[in-house]
Automatic annotation (TrEMBL):
Subcellular location: Cell membrane
UniProt xrefs under InterPro entries: Poly_Biosynth_Transport (IPR050833)
Protein name, UniProt field: Lipopolysaccharide biosynthesis protein
Record membrane topology: Multi-pass membrane protein
Entry annotated with the keyword Hydrolase: no
Highest taxon of the lineage: Bacteria
Coiled-coil portions: none
Membrane spanning residue stretches: 12-33, 45-71, 83-105, 120-140, 152-174, 186-214, 235-256, 262-282, 294-314, 326-347, 359-381, 387-408, 420-442, 448-471
Organism field: Azospirillum thermophilum
CC annotations in GO: plasma membrane
Length: 493
């Protein structure tokens, strides 16, 4: 058991580093995009990316998740090699099919989104790059099931390096704009996709089974509706904003959402990989359930503090990485970071539904979220502009949180419910801290203000821990943990 634990720890931290490297490229490129691209160009990039993501989900049909399941269904190496060959060949066939349709589909989507065919070539290149990115993701899934964490890290470094170098060449040096972004992505993913496919098929042989392909497809299909609706949420709002205010407004909102998404990428996603497993393991042990609940609310405190900090220093972030044309996003940032904080809170009932296999209701909740968010945005964009769209975003997430919790209480009565008082006990101090900062500093950029904003963030977190944000049991667990750390013997000098 100790050896297995050591292996999990060894590979786990390497996979974490690989994920950070994967995401770091997008983070490092954001200042380049916002300095070089106007809000209108960034809006074009955002709309095309969302449409491409929808096509990628349809192309993958949940294949990566299904691949892992089907791979381990075969105990023999020969069967597993057939799974690898079949999935790879099936995905390549779909990728080449999409590639053949890239130009006519690109022309049609350019006409639908922008009213002319002027962006057809850009859309076609974007679809080609997104298609080949799915091959890259499948290759990573293959190396993950083999616990080749070092290989995954090296591949991620290669991807990040390729994206950075080619984006600097095409976007900054040659000034090719949005086309340069998708061309850099395309070249990187084509090169990696071909190299990794050759390496994987050389190790496993070229084999194909219609039965295995059908099994992968049937297992993958249930993952599609929820993912498509989540991406559809983003597309509908951007498309509505484009119609009512123009593509530049789409660029401004997309920039703010790109920043707010970092909360999910670096905090929520990593937390869920650990906490969801712990919650499932603790379902029959009351003490462990208390521990899991403490960890969740402690995470909400950290997530809220990070969201508050991002909202407070958004003027400094804008000054550092973007042009003044993106300034209207500042009014939206508290709502956008609140959205991703509420998304983290929503994981409490959603994990319970997943654990009890009641996931069939989740697409319906997402569909309701689209309706609520779109209705709010349609009503408010006219009088409030981009801020109205941001209200639509947070309204959608609030609806989905409330609906998921109510459904969970109905379908999963044995699960611990979410405590609204504790959630509000975390959020209210953060809201007060933001209001104080806005009153004292506004959106001015001054190094002296940054220290004060950090202090306000820390005060809000302390108020959450020692106020209603933490229960008496939570504080007792926290103090015991701190006490053990303080009593831990220090190594001799």
């Amino acid at each position: 058991m100790a050896s297995e634990a050591e292996q999990i720890i060894k590979h786990g931290w390497l996979f974490m580093v690989a994920n950070v490297v994967n995401r770091a490229a997008g983070l490092l490129l954001l200042p380049l995009y916002t300095k070089v691209l106007s809000p209108a160009q960034f809006g074009v990039y955002s709309l095309i990316s969302v449409v491409g993501d929808i096509l990628a989900v349809m192309l993958m049909i949940g294949m990566i998740n299904a691949f892992t399941v089907v791979y381990f269904e075969h105990p023999d190496e020969a069967g597993r090699r057939r799974v690898v060959g079949t999935t790879m060949i099936g995905l390549w066939s779909a990728t080449l099919g999409l590639l053949a349709l890239a130009w006519p589909v690109g022309l049609g989507i350019s006409e639908a989104l922008f009213g002319n065919g002027g962006e057809a070539a850009v859309v076609a290149v974007a679809f080609a790059s997104i298609a080949f990115s799915t091959v890259f993701e499948l290759a990573l899934a293959y190396y993950r099931v083999h616990r080749r964490s070092g290989t995954c890290l090296m591949i991620s470094i290669g991807k990040a390096g390729g994206l950075l170098v080619l984006n600097l060449l095409f976007v900054w040096w040659l000034d090719w704009g949005v086309a340069g972004i998708f061309l850099a992505n395309g070249i990187t993913f084509v090169a990696l996709g071909v190299l990794l496919t050759v390496a994987i098929l050389a190790a496993n042989g070229v084999s194909f089974s219609f039965g295995i392909l059908k099994r992968v497809g049937m297992l993958g299909l249930p993952f599609m509706p929820q993912t498509l609706l989540d991406i559809g949420n983003q597309f509908v709002l951007r498309y509505l904003l484009n119609i009512l205010m123009g593509i530049a407004a789409v660029g401004v909102l997309s920039f703010g959402m790109r920043l707010a998404t970092l909360l999910y990428m670096f905090l929520t996603a990593s937390f869920l990989q650990i906490w969801s497993v712990a919650r499932i393991e603790a379902q029959h042990r009351a003490a462990d359930r208390d521990q899991a609940e403490f960890v969740f609310y402690f995470f909400i405190v950290l997530l809220t503090a990070a969201a508050l900090g991002m909202a407070l220093i958004s003027p400094e972030i804008l000054w550092l990485i973007a042009s003044p044309d993106y300034a209207p996003v500042l009014a939206c940032m508290p709502l956008l970071v609140l959205t991703y904080t509420l998304h983290g809170v929503r994981m409490h009932p959603e994990v319970a539904l997943v654990k009890t296999k009641r996931v069939g209701v989740l697409p319906l909740i997402s569909l309701g979220g689209i309706a609520v968010g779109t209705a709010l945005a349609a009503l408010l964009i006219g009088p409030l502009g981009v801020l109205g769209a941001a209200i639509g975003v947070v309204g959608r997430e609030l609806f989905m949180l409330v609906a998921t919790e109510l459904v969970c209480r109905r379908l999963c009565p044995q699960e611990l419910p979410l405590h609204p008082g504790q959630v509000l006990g975390v959020l209210v101090p953060a809201a007060i801290a933001y209001a104080v900062s806005l009153e004292l500093f506004g959106h001015a950029v001054d190094p002296a203000y940054v220290a004060a904003k950090v202090g306000l963030t820390m005060l809000a977190a302390i108020a959450a821990v020692f106020g209603p944000g933490f229960s008496r049991t939570d504080r007792a667990i926290l103090f015991r943990m701190v006490g053990r750390v303080l009593r831990r013997p220090q190594p001799a000098a």
